[in-house]
Amino acid sequence: MFWYVLTAVLALAAGVAIGFFIARRYMMDYLKKNPPINEQMLRMMMMQMGMKPSQKKINQMMAQMNKQQDK
């Protein structure tokens, strides 16, 4: 009976550890392929939409996006 419990606990610990590293690797790859938006990307998007981006407007939009992410 003791060996069954010990085996189950060890299998659970191994599964959690393997799952953690797989999830970590997946997120690192995802962030490499899809980086978060920075000021340069925001400026380029505004220029493509026909707007003339001022630094004040970019700062406002970055603050707004960061505020939304915190929710």
UniProtKB/TrEMBL annotation:
TM stretches of this protein: 6-23
Lipid bilayer topology: Single-pass membrane protein
Keyword terms, alphabetized: Cell membrane, Membrane, Transmembrane, Transmembrane helix
Any one Gene Ontology cellular component term annotated for this protein: plasma membrane
Annotated InterPro entries: UPF0154 (IPR005359)
Entry keyword Cell membrane: yes
Recorded superkingdom: Bacteria
Places the protein is found: Cell membrane; Membrane
Keyword Membrane: yes
Pfam families tied to this protein: UPF0154
Chief site of localization: membrane
Family to which this protein belongs: Belongs to the UPF0154 family.
HAMAP family: UPF0154
Protein name: UPF0154 protein BTO30_07065
Provenance organism: Domibacillus antri
